[in-house]
């Protein structure tokens, strides 16, 4: 049986036995041709989510509790299709893109986005940019990012155009349409929005380590895959980057610790329900939106009851 005598390439899995000698997969644009030119950096490798799980849950939970919204947009960005070779380089571009989107979203109607990449006005009101992304690296797709965020329905097309144009400038080439995939889901009913949000959040965490066990309120160990209803695990490759998950500052631990004013010197503070003292079966029962509605009702009542000066 003929075996390939070419050296192993870190960008591809080993060539299976029986493949004719001299054959090798074509090298995608932007990737090195062999192991000697493969990019290396000093960052420790990451492959699966571990300690990031609680941060991700608290962030998405706080988002609905504080702002009364659910994720309605799923963006997938492929580093190989952008010609980006280095893991750390791609990881560093994700915050830059989110910073640009933040500026784009916070410009009020009729205003213009500062900066060189977009100078057109938008027909919708300003809003916060709320997002969570996770980096993954698989054998079939290579390094890519999954991001969940909130985009106004009336800005759907403009957001898609803005995202493609920004990444084309960073890649310095005309990118293929498959490099970036943007999916929107706009449901009218709150329970349908919640359902899509939970499904997408579970998909975002599919690279989580299945070895993690957490004790529930009864002291029983529960597997992470069971708690978050994760899809079957996949074989992930290591990523050499500072971190493999990013969270908007508006959803960070610092923002979660700040009390929300209700009026008349009264405040309300967010408390995470992810912990040993709570029933994991109720993590996604929609309590955050109910709390948001109750808080807004209190604020409205206090505003109406104030005497007119």
How would you explain this protein's 3D organization?
By secondary structure, the chain is an alpha+beta fold. It has one domain. It is built from seven helices and eleven strands. The strands form four sheets. It has a five-stranded antiparallel β-sheet with strand order 5-2-4-3-9, sandwiched between helices. It has a two-stranded antiparallel sheet with strand order 1-8. Strands 6-7 form a two-stranded antiparallel sheet. The radius of gyration is 23 Å and the shape is globular. The model is unreliable at 1-16, 19-38 and 112-122 (pLDDT under 50).
Look at the helices and sheets and give the structural class. alpha+beta
Strand content: 15-25%
Report the mean per-residue pLDDT as an integer: 80
General form:
globular
Total beta strands: 11
Q: How many separate helices?
A: 7
> How many angstroms does the end-to-end distance come to?
93 Å
**Strand-and-helix sequence, N→C?**
EHEHEEHEHEEHEEHEEH
Rg calculated over all Cα atoms = 23 Å
Main-sheet strand order equals 5-2-4-3-9
List the helices and strands and how they pair.
Blueprint lengths: L44 E2 L5 H16 L5 E6 L8 H19 L25 E8 L3 E8 L6 H16 L8 E5 L5 H15 L8 E3 L5 E3 H4 L11 E2 L4 E3 L5 H4 L3 E4 L2 E3 L18 H19 L4
Antiparallel strand pairs: 1-8, 2-4, 2-5, 3-4, 3-9, 6-7, 10-11
């Amino acid at each position: 049986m003929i075996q390939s005598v070419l050296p192993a390439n870190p960008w591809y899995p080993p060539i299976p036995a029986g493949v004719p000698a001299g054959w090798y997969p074509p090298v995608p644009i932007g990737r090195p041709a062999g192991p000697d030119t493969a990019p290396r950096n000093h960052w420790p490798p990451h492959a699966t989510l571990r300690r990031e799980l609680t941060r991700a849950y608290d962030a998405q939970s706080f988002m609905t509790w504080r702002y009364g919204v659910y994720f309605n947009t799923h963006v997938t960005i492929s580093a190989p299709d952008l010609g980006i070779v280095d893991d750390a380089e791609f990881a560093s571009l994700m915050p830059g893109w989110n910073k640009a989107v933040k500026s784009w979203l916070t410009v009020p109607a009729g205003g213009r986005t500062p900066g060189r990449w977009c100078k057109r006005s938008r027909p919708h009101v300003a809003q916060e940019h709320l997002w969570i992304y996770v980096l993954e690296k698989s054998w079939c797709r290579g390094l890519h990012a999954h991001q969940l965020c909130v985009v106004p329905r009336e800005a759907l097309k403009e957001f898609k155009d803005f995202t493609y144009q920004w990444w084309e400038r960073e890649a310095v080439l005309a990118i293929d349409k498959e490099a970036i995939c943007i999916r929107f889901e706009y449901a009218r009913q709150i329970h349908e929005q919640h359902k899509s949000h939970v499904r997408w959040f579970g998909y975002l965490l599919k690279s989580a380590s299945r070895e993690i066990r957490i004790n529930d309120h009864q002291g029983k160990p529960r597997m992470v895959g069971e708690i978050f209803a994760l899809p079957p695990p996949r074989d992930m490759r290591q990523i050499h980057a500072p971190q493999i998950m990013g969270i908007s500052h508006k959803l960070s631990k610092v923002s979660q610790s700040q009390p929300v004013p209700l009026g008349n010197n009264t405040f309300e503070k967010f408390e995470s329900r992810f912990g040993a003292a709570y029933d994991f079966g109720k993590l996604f029962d929609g309590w955050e939106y109910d709390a948001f509605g109750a808080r807004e009702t209190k604020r409205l009542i206090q505003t109406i009851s104030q005497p007119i000066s």
